[in-house]
Design brief:
By secondary structure, this protein is α+β, with helices and mostly antiparallel strands. It has 14 helices and 15 strands. Strands 10-12-13-15-14 form a 5-stranded mixed β-sheet. The chain has a 4-stranded antiparallel β-sheet with strand order 1-8-3-6.
Amino acid sequence: MMRAPRDAQKEQRLTPEQVEALMPYGSELSLQTGDVLFDERSVVDSFYVVLDGEIGISRLDGAEEIPLETHGAGEFTGGLAVLTGRTSIHRARAGAPSLLLEVDSETFRRVAVELPDVADVFISGLARRMRYTQRAYRQQEKLAALGKLSAGLAHELNNPAAAAIRASEELGGAVREAQLAALAHDNRFSPDERDRLIAFQRETVAEVVPLDPLALGDAEDELAGWLEGRGIGEPWDLAPTLAAAGVDTGRLKTLTDDLEEGTLESGLGWLAKTIELVGLADELATSAGRISELVGAMKDYTYMDRSAAGEVDVIPGLENTLAILGHKLKGVRVRREYEEDLPKVQGNGGELNQVWTNLLDNAADAVDGRGNITVKGFVEAGSIVVEVVDDGPGIPREARERVFEPFYTTKEVGAGTGLGLDVVRRIVRAHGGEVSVRSKPGETSFTVSLPVDTTRNGG
């Protein structure tokens, strides 16, 4: 749910003097940690002002409880249900030992007359909450529709991707057979020359070692020069294909020993075309396989076809998130430092993946496609700790103190909503954990600590 901006929250908080003036109008109520103040089945007929402690507000989505907001001293809850005269759409639970002031709706009518400044805080706060609630519901409906669309698309993509993989594998074999058949009927070559070309092609496919761009460019230049020196036509067309397949001048020299001078150019043309066609078939298989991997990662990321709540292994979640964000991480060096055999945590896998997405997305923005990101996972003091470290320019001191505030962003207008890290903090706290940030020029680290043996309580 969207939260009110920080200045709006301040306006919704009663001052100590206003709370003191309100005390004669209500009665005090004590709650222990975990006690429910009201839930979705409750008819709420009172305003509750937090005097001490904190009250967590959440809502049910099916069987899942989703945290929305936490009210501290001077803030109030229960107002929306009182205003509409209906049962609550939320639930309220004490997140710590708390003391509240309960003001029933009948008494509040007197407050509106006798304490107009206090009533104004209630009424203006309720108006804002209703606007944000309506906006959040509209956004939720859009996301739900998008989720159903994505689920259907993932299922639909799987079948053609699998078919493409099978077809491309068969295509590679068919290309080889067709090229071998063409060579068998090419009278320019003797039987011994055909056998040597076939053996050379098979050796090339088996021994290919990818080169880095700089080494590949040097190999192409060397091959083209060698071919040109032997009078081979169009050497700059042949050289890139041969070099990419790992053929160098040394290997070509051994081939020329087995071919007549008049058939060398034709043999190299056949060899290059066979390598190119087989390579294209392999590229199709690789691309189709990548589609299947991404669909699988998306299904795991969203916990499609399985319950999102339960035991969660954070490492696969991090890996699925890195796969999905692969387009943003091109050119970025990502280093993993995962402790082996990490225990699982109790929680909602889909929500935790939102945490990893926001942290990694911010890190990718910070390094801007040319830096380093390190993702760590380890156990410390009975908790699973995940760190996302980037070597970007860092976060200014004044911004570090506000990065977890809702609607606060250091990005340009239109580039960020300022809700990502607010979502991170709320999800992590709902799992009983903590999130923190350290930053200096050249190193920013976001650290998430999740208890291993604590189940979610939704508070």
